[in-house]
Structures are given as structure tokens and as C-alpha cells.
Amino acid sequence: MAMGKLMIFLLQLSWTVHLVTAIQRKYIFPYGTLSGDLTLQEGDDETSKVLALKRPLYFYESQFNELYVATNGIISAQDLPMEKQYVDDGFPTDFPVIAPFLADIDTSQGNGAIYYRVTESPTLLNRVAQEVHRGFPGGHFTPTHAVIATWENVAAYEEVTRATGPSDRLNTFQAVVAYDENDSYALFLYPEDGLHFFGTRPKESYNVEIELPARVGFSRGEVSFIFSRMEGPYYSVTSNEQSLKNLYQVGNTGVPGVWLFHIGNRYSFENVVPASVGGALATPPPRGQEGDDSTTAEYPETFEEEPDEDYPPIADPDFLSPTIPEFLQPSHLDHDAFPGQARLQPYGGDLPLTSDPQYRENDNHVIQYSTETKETCARFQQQCSQNADCTDYSSGFCCHCRSGFYGNGRHCLPDGAPHRVNGKVSGTVIVGSTPVDLNSVDLHAYIVVSDGRAYTAISEVPEPVGWALMPVAPIGELFGWLFALELPNSQAGFKITGELSHDVTDVTFYPGNQRLSIVQTAQGLDSENHLSVDTRLHGDVPFIAPGATVQMEPYKETYQYYPSVVRSTSVREFTVVSAERGSETFTFQLHQNITYHDCRYGLRAGPETLQLTTERVFVMYVKDENILRYAITNKISPVGEPVQVNPCYSGTHDCDTTAQCLPGEGQQYQCQCATGYMGDGRNCYDVDECVEGIGLCGANAHCVNLPGSHRCQCQSGYELSGCCFQFTIAACNPLNIKLAQYIPQIRSLSCPYLDECRSQPCHPQATCSNTLGSFQCQCQYDFQGDGFQCVPSNGDTHCEHQRDSLQTTSPEGNVDGAFVPQCDEQGQYRALQCHGATGHCWCVDSRGQERAGTRKPPGTSQPNCDEPAVVPPTQRPETVCERWRASLVDHYGGLPGPNHYLPQCDPQGQFNPIQCYGDSSYCWCVDRDGREVAGTRSHDVVKPACVPTVAPPTMHPLPRPDVTPPPSGTSLLYAQGQQIGALPLNGTLMDSERSSTLLALHGSIVVGIDYDCREKKVYWTDLAGRTINRARLEPGAEPETLINTGLTSPEGLAVDVVRRAMFWVDSTPDKIERANLDGSGRQTLFDTDMVNPRAIIVDSSTGTLYWTDWNREAPKIERSSVDGHSRKVLVKDGIGLPNALTFDTATRQVCWADAGTKRLECIASDGTGRRVIHSNLNYPFSMVFYANHFYFTDWRRDGVIALSRDSSQFTDEYLPDQRSHLYGVTIATTHCL
């Protein structure tokens, strides 16, 4: 017996040891030409052709439609720069990177191969889905596409000599990026014996023996904001050589060498989350007995915990998954003899996430891993809404909506705003003995959240079933419960369920015992924050005679709350009144189960039972329109709660339907308009962003107003994020990536062709015609409009259309409390408008907009609209928002364009909670000071929901849009996005204590800058405003716009003090221009043989012009005379990204700083005497020379760096308090040098 136990133990130990070895090369994902792979060209720095993705991939929170595979062990979402710019640098990178092994790899001369492809193979997708399910057991992921890249037997770059010869150290590794419509995951696979080198030597190590370790991880790349640029988030898997060696020795999926990461989400994503699989090592099943869970198919929606659920496989007869290696296992062994061991999952079991595994022995002497598998906010915070906070509890985490929002934490909506529900109704209903089919007819609901009124309309309902369904108000009662008016110590259903729930309601009618099943599934919020609900009906209902009416009395219903389930049971009465049978009373019994995903970790808040009080039920069937309507008023409260007397709870308040009623003491309350509406709370008006110019869309988009928001509908045939509007701030670097790449009319390389009609962009009564790069909407016959909005061609005016649409919103003809405009005989707005519910009257203009100062409360005389309105003088000072806006309007010459940023202010002069940039859909929320609220940025067609949490102050200090000159003496002037800073020099040292803001230019992106020492004026280019400007360095001097036409991306700028002229580069049309210092005499010097012109300087003493062109394929530095003659290439070899350019007046040399080669070099004007001043820069952008020192702005440090020409050493550094990228820099001296 003892010998038998020993044999079993030894056999078990041998399996365990076998399982902790790395995955075998033959078991990684299939690759090679036989698998349909493309092969990357051999070389040291190659990039694949673009991999166009059929559907977008989300990396971090950004959407990408293409990928590139590069030699140096990375996959990127944009075309890569030269390797000099990234291969020797650590994380973060400047561009998006997925790096299974970032190093200087070389496949020249047959040193391995690199394969890649996009696949939709069900088996491969199944394999990834299962890994994700095991690594992230709480999620639902069904990948639709995967990108597989494999580096097979690739070598490190080495300088081969006769003495050394080629190296035999070769690496093999693989990356798999899989995604669905919402999430993206990455698998890194390092097979056993696959890694033989762990770092590479820099190419320019100058014989210094140094090896830089490879980098493994993810980098979002630089993120561009309105006024600044900053490094995006990144995640590193390794930190040193030992952690690199651990790549194939351990893993975080249960298999050494296999690593899994969640790398992106459509809605909210902070940073990469690694998988974490822990527990005992798995015991392999016999070959052929792996079971159904060896592959995983789509995960069905489930609303109750069902652990260890089996998922059916997706069949792929063309491929046999090599997931599970073949193991020898005696069939007679009993699995139960080994406590604590689970059966083998693909790859062979569960291992913890660690690069330093720790082993322990249990009572059975089985080697195990130990790990913490708790779900925490640090790992899963992205599952919370962007308007929610994540809280860790002892066993997990929960999400909680922030103040001003409501929901279950995973889905949050703004307080106070009305809500809409859209969906379809399907099924078969038997009326009497006649079955009637409902084939996906439309359902629309409108809920006035402020008082709990829910209106539901179902269209295209056939007449027999339309009359019979009138008593079935429970179809609309779900929406009443979700968004009921909350009394104290209660909460509406949406705060519990969020956007996902499943409601099964059984209705039994008496006395006929007909039974009807109602199944309603809430499927989530759409792009406009409307809830999508699918409704299915099946069963019998009593016959109701055509023309009859149904009356239902108010009722109260008790809801019982359990984890993940809410239940209710009630008996209702309804009365049918018909001409044939008179008045008849019937009853029905209702059983309702609502299931949802509950957060089981936190303490459950709220009572176990609540009471839903339905004070009013109105039902009707409109025969002529085949529309079934329900109107229900709901309140939710604790059971037996006494009636609340506050008007907010009783519903007797006079707040607008688009306002939130805030109860006070006794009968007191306040009304607050919801986001996207303006007014005093009792009268709130939708802000028509399209008319008011607040939400202007670009030339390639159409503005569609929405209640409380607006939508920009692309018309150009390109994705909105990056192609619909001309200036993409968050997704593009406007300086390192040519702006033209994001203008489809100029370059379409980065914008894939789309069939826009598939997304149904047109009005339902319009037809969509797709064209190359665009589409066209045309209203159908008997309708008129622009195709995005179509109205019956009966001559309705805007006033009539608005009036009629409001009058048909509710079952009773109009929404209670909503203002309906009055139109005259010609269909125009009457000059005098009155609110029938509140009694207020006011005058309007021809557009129906209220004239300020004309509103009169009820009980007073009506305003005389024939007289000009007398606007009472304001008693408050001008606010920050108003002064900022006025300064920018003046800055733009009184005519701001669609590409200009203007702050949006509310009627009180405070910042609107939501702000948008120019004509784009780049919008964000701000706090009371106008500062961006983190995590609220949106590039979607629908703007983010922003609600102010505190009342804004009435006055703030404002950076004035005029000059505050620096102290006397010599100063550096630098551009920092929306401002020009002044940095005094004390000799050659920078005096940071006396630094100041020379000029605040809100809404600008100042790039190029230079100084006229004769007239003491500073000149600059504004990339956002597309202007060239100047200002005198005198107190109170204001900016002067010199050129505001014909500019696209003005960058570098140079002033010729002697000839009184200025020169600049425009990097989109690729040209160099000149003009007199007052803007006159403008002419083009060069517009050919340039790709990416950046910096420009002028040597006034000789009349020579110098400029850089950082064309990736052939970067160069050129020169010519100031009149455009004698053009010549000065430098073309050994440069990468020549950003900065200056002139050393002492040595008469041209000097440049290169962000690619990291060197600062100088050369004589005739091309001789080239020398390296410094060879280890970070990321220089602009540079100026003064007093034997170079001063350059650096994007890695976000500051100004000083370097001595003579010692080649850094001598000083200045980092502004406001950390963002610095652009141009120049020297302002007291006299001309």
C-alpha cells in the first residue's frame, strides 16, 4: 500500500512539474504562410502595410481602424516613425504601442521571419474567448476579430565583423489582439526555449559596452488636449532582465509563457488590466475527454449567478485546436484522490500573476501557486461608469454614481433630465380565438423624471389587438418603476438595475382565465443615452369591442427586493365602457420578476420592500394611427409611508418638465434646469446648439439638435473620430503628424472608406445613397427637408412643426407642463407667447427665441411686443466666462470661425457644464472655474452628460488678453499652447522666480515665436486660430492679427530685423511664405520638394534663410536667400527628426536639435565643419542661441533646457508650474545684438 501511494505521488509530481514548464512552440496560435499569414519584409526597421480592420478596435479608450506590425517587436495603431525615435527609449512612447518584445530586432539576411494576419476563424476566436473568460471571469467577451503577429527566430541587431560573425541568439514570440464591439484583449505568448536574448545594444553606443533591456507592455502614446499635450497612460510588464526571463517561465493565465491583458474599452478605460488566475495546478484529463469547456462560444446574457457554466463550442472543421498538449495519464487513477485539483483547462491549469513565483506545499505534497484573486478597483475600475466612483470592499469592489447622477454605478444618468426609451415589440397575441402577430413594431417611451410621469406609445398595432391590449398597462409600468419619482428613503429601479435588466411578467385575466406573458429585456443605453428595451408578448387576452374605452383606478404595489431579483404581485381592476355592453368591470392578477446584475460585495443599501404608488393611469388606442398609448404617474416610497406634503413629492410643484425639483423645508423647493437646458427652472428651454452656434459641426458634418444636447452627423464618409472634422485634437499630434492626414479631401490614407448608409444616418422618411467618401440623404415623396430632418410636405413652418411635435408627445395631446409655441396664420411665431401651465408671457423674435427683458409673471399685464424690450442693467460684474469669450471674439476679429474655440456661458455668465472645441465633437465637462473634469472627454456624436455639482461663484480672476511685459533685461520668450511665457535670464541662468505669463491667449495653440528687437514686438503663429499675430512688449498692449487667411498649419516663424520681413512654414500645404512685418506684401517662396517643414530661421546679416524638413523618408535641412533664390540642401545625412534650428552668431554656424537622433549638431553655412555638440537629448522641439548657450524646449521634460556650447553640458533647467508641452522659444534682448 505504501509503495502504491508513493508511485501515485511521484506520478502526480511529474505531471505537476511538466505543467509548470512553458507552452511548447507547437501549441501557440497557428502561424505562417500556410495559415494565411502575410510576411513582413526582411530588414532592420520595417513596418507592414496597413492592416485595415473591418470593425474598429478600442485601445485604451480610443478607437482605431488600422494596425501596423513592425520589425522591432511591436504592433501599433498608427504608422510608425523611424526606429531612432523609439527603439532605445523606455515607456511611454509617443505613439500607440502593443509591445510583446520591443527591442532593436533585425531580420536581414534570413535571420528569422515575421508573420501577421487578421482572422475571423471561429476556433481561434473561441480559444481567445475562453482565455479571457478564465482570466476575467466576471466579464462577457465574444471576439469578432483577432490580429495575430508572430516573430519566429528573429535576431537582435548587431554590427557584424569578421571577428564576431552573426549571432545564434534567436527569439520566437507571438502577440494576439482580439476584440469585439466594446472590449479588446491581448495575449502574449513566449514558448519554451523561445527567448535567447533579452536586450539589444544601441546603434550609436560608440563602442561602449551597454545593452538596453527589451520593453514589454503597452503605451497609449501622447494624448493631445485643447491647450496642451501630455504623455498618455502606459503599462509595463517587465522592468529588468530577470523579469524578461520570467516571461516564458511564468504567466498570468495558468500557463507559463502565456500572458493576458485587458487593453481597451469603448466607454471608459484608465489603464491596462492584467489577468489573474490562481489556485492549484490543474490535473490534465485524458486526451479526448477535455469536455465542452475546452472552447468557449458566445456568452449568453444571464442575470443570476451560475458558476462553472459550460459554454458550447464554435465548430471549425478546418482546424483542430492544438490548445491541449498530449499527456500520458493512467485511466484508472481517481481524480478525487487528489484534493484541491481541478481538471485541465486549455494550456494546462491555473497560475498566479507574478514574475517571481512563490511555491508552497499542501498536505498532499502537491506543488501549488498562491495568489490574491480578489477583484479590486485597481484591476476592474473600467467597469464603472465614467460618472461613478469605485469602492473596494473586503471581498470585491462596487461602483457608485457620483453626485448629480443616478444609476447602479456601472451606468449613470444625469439627474433631472427627461428620459427616453426605444425598442421593439414582437410576439403573438390571441384575441378571443384570433391570433395576431406583432412583427417588431416600434415602442417609444418618454419619462418626466422630475414627477414620475411615463408615457409609452406602441405604433403599427393592428386594430383587433390594439383594443384588447389597452388594459395591459404593465407594458409601460416597467418604465414607471425604473424612473419613478423618489420619496425619501427610497430609490427608483434604474438605481438598482442600471441599463441591463430582464423583466418577466405573467398576467392572468378574470373571469376568462386568459394568460399573457410579457418579457422585457433592457439591452443598454444607445449613443444618445436612450434605453433600448426589447418586448415580447405571448398568450391570450380578452376581446374588447372596437371604440370602447378602458378606465383603470390608481393602485399601490409592493416590490420585494432580493440580491439580483425584484418581485411583485398584485390584483388590479379595470373597467371597459362600450356602446354595445355598457360598463363592465374585470380584474387581472400580475406576477412580476425583475432580474439584474447586482454588486454582491458592498453592503446592500435600502429597505427590503418598497411601495410603488400609481396615482394616475391613462390608456387609449388611436384607431386612425394604429397607436397604443399608456400614461402612468408613479412614485416610489417605503411601505406605509405617510403622504409627503412637499410639492416635489406631491407633484404640485411648477418646475419645468426638463427641470429637477429640489425639496427644501416644509413647502419650500427649488427648480434646477437639467443639463442642456437653460432658464429659471420653472421655464427651461432646450439649448439649440445648432442654431445658437454652441455646437457647430464642421464642414463635413451636419448638426442635429437633440433634447439637452446635439449630434454631429458625418457626411464625408469617414469615421467621426479623426476624419469628420478637420482638426482632431485628442487623436492626432497636430505637429508631429501632418494635419492633412486627417482631412479626407487632401489625404485619405488614414481614413478607411465607409458605407455610411449601413448606420442609417438619414431620417426614417428619407433614402440614403452611398457614394465614394460620402453619402446623400433625400426626403421621400410627400416629405420635405434636408434628408436628416424630413417633415410632411404640407407647408409646415418651423413653428408649426415644433408645435405639432409637442402636441403629439403624450397620449393626451401634449406633455403636461410643456410649453407649446403659438403660431400665426402664416405659420410664423406669434410675437407674444404664453405658457399655458404657468401663466408666464414673453415676446419672441422671428426664430421663436425669447427677447430678453420681456417676460411677465402671471397676474401682471402682458408685455407689449411692439415696443423694444427694456433690458434692466446688470448689477453684477462681468464673469470670467464672459470676459474670456469677449476677448476671444475680439481676438478673432469679431468673426470667430467654426474652427475657433469659444467658451460657452450660461445666462448667469458662468461656464456651461459642457464645453466643445470649435466645429468638432470633442467635448468635455468643466468645473465651476472652467477647468476640465477628468474622465469626461468624448469624441462621440453625442456630447457627454455634464451636471454642475455646486453653484458657480460670481467672480474669478482672469488672465487678461493683453501684455504683461517681463522685468527689464534679457528674457527668454516661450510658447506654451494658450499662452506666451517670459523667463528672465540672470547672465545665462534662467531666473524661474521671476518667470511670468507675458500674454494669455485662450483658445490658441502658439507654436512658432520670434522677436523684433527694433520695435520690441513679439510675433507668433497660432495653429488653432490659423493666424499670425504680434504684440508690443508694453503694459496693456493688445494682440494684433496680421494674417488670418490662407493658413492651415502655420508652425515655424522667423523675423528679419534688417529687411523688416517675416517668414513662416505651413506644414499642411508644405510651403514657405514671407510678408512684411505689417502683413502686407505676402508671397510664396517655396511650395515644392517639401514634405514636413517645421523650423525656420533667418540670418539677417547675410540675408540667408534656413529651414528643416523632417520627411521620414528623407529628412533634410535647406538654405536659400531671403528672396527665394539659390535654394540648396545643406544637410541630408545622419538626421532623423530635425525639429529645432538656430544660428550661432559667434561661430557663424547653423545648429539643429534632432528628436530622432537625439543629437545637437552644428555646421557651417557652406556645409563644412559639421560637429556634434551633444548626443543624448530627449525630445527637443525649438531652440535659440544666446551667450554661448543653447536654450531649447523639451517635450519629455515639458520645460526649457540650457546647454553650454563650450562644455557640451547641461547647465540649467526650467519646468513651468503648468506642465504641458512647450513649443517655440526665442530671445528678447534690450537692444539688437
UniProtKB/TrEMBL annotation:
InterPro entries: 6-blade_b-propeller_TolB-like, Cueball_EGF_LRP_Nidogen, EGF, EGF-like_Ca-bd_dom, EGF-type_Asp/Asn_hydroxyl_site, G2_nidogen/fibulin_G2F, GFP, Growth_fac_rcpt_cys_sf. Residues 280-313, 852-876 are annotated as: Disordered. SUPFAM superfamilies: EGF/Laminin, GFP-like, Growth factor receptor domain, Thyroglobulin type-1 domain, YWTD domain. PROSITE patterns: ASX_HYDROXYL (PS00010), EGF_2 (PS01186), EGF_3 (PS50026), LDLRB (PS51120), NIDO (PS51220), NIDOGEN_G2 (PS50993), THYROGLOBULIN_1_1 (PS00484), THYROGLOBULIN_1_2 (PS51162). Disulfide bonds join 714-723, 834-841, 916-923. It is found in: Secreted, Extracellular space, Extracellular matrix, Basement membrane. Pfam families: EGF_3, EGF_CA, G2F, Ldl_recept_b, NIDO, Thyroglobulin_1. Residues 291-311 have a biased composition (Acidic residues). Residues 1-22 form the signal peptide. Residues 796-865, 878-946 form the Thyroglobulin type-1 domain. GO terms for cellular component: basement membrane; plasma membrane. One of its GO terms (molecular function) is Wnt-protein binding. Residues 417-646 form the Nidogen G2 beta-barrel domain. The keyword Disulfide bond applies. Keywords: Basement membrane, Calcium, Cell adhesion, Disulfide bond, EGF-like domain, Extracellular matrix, Glycoprotein, Repeat, Secreted, Signal. LDL-receptor class B repeats lie at residues 1016-1059, 1060-1102, 1103-1147. Residues 644-685, 686-724, 753-789 form the EGF-like domain. Residues 100-266 form the NIDO domain. This is Nidogen 2. GO terms for biological process: canonical Wnt signaling pathway; cell-matrix adhesion; epithelial cell differentiation.
